[in-house]
Design goal:
About 45% of the residues lie in helices and about 10% in strands. The protein is an alpha/beta fold and about 250 residues long.
Length: about 250
């Protein structure tokens, strides 16, 4: 297993504490089973607004917006709400969350959301469960670097201000309601890059985005899952650079 010892001291985002919503830290599974019972602390639309505020803070008038997985849905919402701030929209292994599309396998959801222990409780078991999830979504064409994944998991845990923030992100995704107008009204050049072996958002999710977004190109990566191994970086950079150059 991983033997890395990492302490993260870099600057972090501020932590918003709301004890009224901290119950989600112990009831995530209940929320996922019955999302209508709970009010999400914040939404994916709130996160899209955060991108707008960040661009304004840095004085950036327009940007190429790139989002992966859940971040791809946030990117769609941003481009939909703020087309005047969007040069291009680039989506990695994402989805519209159209309820008619194939659902994510329940076993995969459990791997993502359920841990038998915490990082502080039993580090080795916690890391093993995280690594097992990464293996499940990884690309079958590329070597899985378990040592490197362990290091990333440990670094992420040291960097976290609170476990609650991770839960709230999952809750924001689970509480998102599909809106077909988001896709139909998108009017920015869009590139969709998707793995044909993605176990979370299968190829049907990519086809749905392609068919419903005006002016959308689709690139399917053969043998690719829901991960971004470094071996893919050169081709992804080339894909994005060529698309932006158009």
């Amino acid at each position: 297993m991983c033997s890395a010892s990492i302490i993260e001291t870099a600057e972090k985002s501020t932590l918003i504490s709301d004890s009224g919503n901290d119950r989600h830290s112990s009831s995530l599974d209940d929320f996922l089973q019955q999302p209508g019972k709970h009010a999400a602390p914040y939404s994916l639309i709130d996160m899209a607004d955060d991108i707008r505020d960040l661009l304004h803070a840095f004085g950036i008038q327009r940007a190429h917006i790139v989002g992966r997985s859940m971040g791809g849905i946030i990117a769609q919402l941003f481009a939909y709400k703020y087309p005047e701030l969007t040069n291009t929209l680039i989506l990695f292994m994402s989805s519209s969350f159209n309820p008619t599309l194939p659902k994510v396998d329940d076993a995969m959801i459990r791997k993502l959301t359920n841990s038998t222990t915490s990082f502080q409780g039993d580090r080795q078991i916690f890391i093993k469960e995280k690594v097992d999830f990464m293996k499940a979504i990884y690309d079958n064409r590329y070597r899985f670097n378990e040592e490197k994944e362990c290091e990333l998991i440990i670094k992420d845990e040291y960097r976290k201000s609170s476990l609650i923030k991770a839960f709230r992100q999952i809750i924001a995704l689970a509480s998102y309601t599909y809106n077909p107008h988001v896709l139909h009204c998108l009017d920015v050049p869009t590139l969709m890059i998707h793995g044909d072996q993605d176990p979370l958002f299968g190829a049907a999710h990519a086809a749905d985005l392609k068919s419903n977004i005006h002016n959308c190109d689709l690139i399917l990566k053969n043998g690719t899952g829901h991960a971004l191994p470094k071996e893919l970086f050169p081709s992804l950079i080339e894909n994005i650079s060529d698309f932006i150059a158009k």
